[in-house]
Amino acid sequence: MFAVIKTGGKQYRVAANDLLKVEKVSGAAGDIVEFAEVLMVGEGASATIGVPVVEGAMVTAEVVEQGRARKVIAFKKRRRQNSKRTRGHRQELTTIRISEILTGGAKPSKKAAAKPAAKKDDAVKAEAVEATEAAPKAKAAPKKAAAKAASAE
């Protein structure tokens, strides 16, 4: 079975265990990512074409590595003007391995990495900061007076 997915503004024909490079997808190596924009799924005459996407279809993939493509040089020269400009660009790419093609609202066997939300540690730190700001600050005047008295003697 194969599927046609859309990611990064491009369409890819994928099957299970395919290895391909796509535009950057967030996730570290080993993470599972889900592609919900499935435009076509099936095999031969039994293929289902989405309008615009196939309902209940999903493709899961494992991130193999994050990398960058070869450098593309954009060189412009204006003849007889003593003017030239060179620019380079390296596109960020993600190498993925297709794990499963799911249809009919089936759940993936491996769970996709949860998007980072506010962690409990961050909430505790925020509360501690608020508590220190709300607490009255100790007066520094007695320390200064004690220091002046000590230096006068």
TrEMBL record:
InterPro entries hit by this protein: bL21-like (IPR028909), bL21-like_sf (IPR036164), Ribosomal_bL21 (IPR001787)
Q: Which SUPFAM superfamilies match?
A: L21p-like
Is S-adenosyl-L-methionine there in the keyword field?
no
Disordered: annotated segments: 129-153
Give the GO biological process terms.
translation
Alphabetized Pfam families for the sequence: Ribosomal_L21p
* Domain of life where this protein originates: Bacteria
Q: Where is the composition biased (Low complexity)?
A: 129-139
Q: Name one GO molecular function term.
A: structural constituent of ribosome
Task: List, alphabetically, the HAMAP family matched.
Answer: Ribosomal_bL21 (MF_01363)
Instruction: Tell me which NCBIfam families the record gives.
Output: L21
Q: What does this protein do?
A: This protein binds to 23S rRNA in the presence of protein L20.
Question: Which family does the similarity line name?
Answer: Belongs to the bacterial ribosomal protein bL21 family.
Protein name listed in UniProt = Large ribosomal subunit protein bL21
The species this protein belongs to is: Phyllobacterium salinisoli
